[in-house]
Amino acid sequence: MPKRTTAFNLALPPPAANIPSYRWLYSEIRAQILGGSLAPGNRLPSTREFAKLYSLSRGTIVAAFEQLIAEGYLEGVVGSGTRVSKTLPEDWLNVRAGVENVRRNFRSKRRPSRYAQKIKLFPGYDKRPTRAFRSNVPGLDLFPMELWTQITARVLRRASTQHLLGCNPMGYEPLQSAVSQYLSSSRGVNCQPQQVAIVSGVQEALDLTARLFVDRGDRVCMEEPGYIGAAQIFEAVGAKILLTGLDDQGMRLPAPSARGARLVYVTPGHQFPLGTTMSLARRLALLEWASARSALIFEDDYDGEFRYTGRPIPALQGLDRSGCVLYAGSFSKVLFPSLRLAYIVVPSDLVDYFAAAISLTTRHSPALEQAVLTEFIENGHFARHIRAMRQLYAERLALLVESARQDLSGLLELSPIEAGLQTIGWLQRGIKEIAAAKAAQLRGVDVTPLSTYCARPLARPGLQLGFAGVDPREIRRGTRDLALALEPLARRRS
């Protein structure tokens, strides 16, 4: 076992004027041992070091050490200095038990805030190898890691003190400009660089928006089914969530009960989780509805870069004439999950609010990572990567559709989608979602019951299937094993 030593000087309070120095030193060291700050086996500084640190005579220190050794708190080890005894006096156990009782009593009276009582741990990415049909994961197997490493090394070699100091709360200015240009050309977003806030993810953008514009009891409209990560944030701030249904044009307009709603959360490019694309007519109607009621719209374009069929429809924000849309997207979904960089495009009159809120929380996103991403975008690598991934994901989607037709006919029907990283498979012949997901899991297939994203039961059971991050061999294996999982469930219903 390696030796345990203290790697720091002991932080002792100054001695009281009416207490002898050796008694003060004895009491403080004993207190640190009893409190657990000095653990059994820890080595204390030498008497010479103590004398220098606290301007004490070595005789005073020796007297305190000898008393602690006599009582069993310290032991002198030849060639190893003075250490805390491995076996402490029985009185130590009694004192420690008393400390634990005090702690338990304190904890029993501690009251978390209402916010703390409402928040829940949000699941992160599964770090196991990607298998069929894990959702919300990009194709990491073909990410240009060598190129990213080269750019990172180049940025680090050129890094200045400005990179080391950080950046302003809204983000690294070159990245703000690069994102603004990209969104204007590819997504039809109308914005200036100063309107772009660089954040750690869409979750942070949602949290900032909720805390800035939603008070306890305010109404927030959401799609049903919809993104539970948004619902949890709105619930945490005490909002009243009003669920709005969907049709083949996307989210319907909020019901009359939504009068006075402060915020509408929507995923128009690729509805999460059903995959519907909101029609142009419905987008214009929603903008008119929000403008007439002075409500904000949070447009989550979480995977809008990956559109495979149909004519591109401009972002909701690009159609906005009243300045009511907050537009958010993430590089984590496009590039790789551990790149905690995303953006939210803020109406110009709200920029100061976001800048102030970020300055009080994260201060700013990591400047060096922003610099790497900026170069990746400005040198054209980002656009090339998106084009390559769009083609790859389209091929994987086509393979999933064909494999499902061969293996899952009569068991599961895939929903046609025009964009995104995952799709919905509608269960046939009365198969239950939860039973289907459990049976699939036993065969090494990951699917998510659609009810996970619903507050109310759906008329039709379904499973969410991801395809973007799944290689062709695994897609074929996944449909075969999913069929084997579903067939017994279908027979039971026959």
Could you give a quick summary of the protein structure above?
The protein is α/β, with parallel strands linked by helices and 494 residues long. It folds into 3 domains: 1-110, Arc Repressor Mutant, subunit A, CATH 1.10.10; 144-379, Type I PLP-dependent aspartate aminotransferase-like (Major domain) (Aspartate Aminotransferase, domain 2, 3-Layer(aba) Sandwich), CATH 3.40.640; 384-493, Aspartate Aminotransferase, domain 1. The chain is built from 18 helices and 15 strands.
Task: Please describe what this structure looks like.
This protein is of the alpha/beta class and 494 residues long. It folds into 3 domains: 1-110, Arc Repressor Mutant, subunit A (Orthogonal Bundle); 144-379, Type I PLP-dependent aspartate aminotransferase-like (Major domain) (Aspartate Aminotransferase, domain 2); 384-493, Aspartate Aminotransferase, domain 1. 44% of the residues lie in helices and 12% in strands. It contains 18 helices and 15 strands. The chain has helices at 21-35, 47-54, 58-70, 90-109, 114-118, 145-158, 161-165, 173-186, 202-213, 228-236, 280-293, 316-319, 331-334, 351-360, 367-378, 381-407, 433-442, 472-493, and strands at 74-77, 81-84, 196-199, 219-223, 240-244, 246-247, 250-251, 263-266, 296-300, 325-330, 342-345, 412-414, 422-427, 448-449, 462-466. The strands form 4 sheets. A 7-stranded mixed sheet has the order 3-11-10-9-8-4-5, sandwiched between helices. Strands 12-13-15-14 form a 4-stranded antiparallel sheet, with helices on one face. The chain has a two-stranded antiparallel sheet with strand order 1-2. It starts with 20 loop residues before the first helix and ends with a helix.
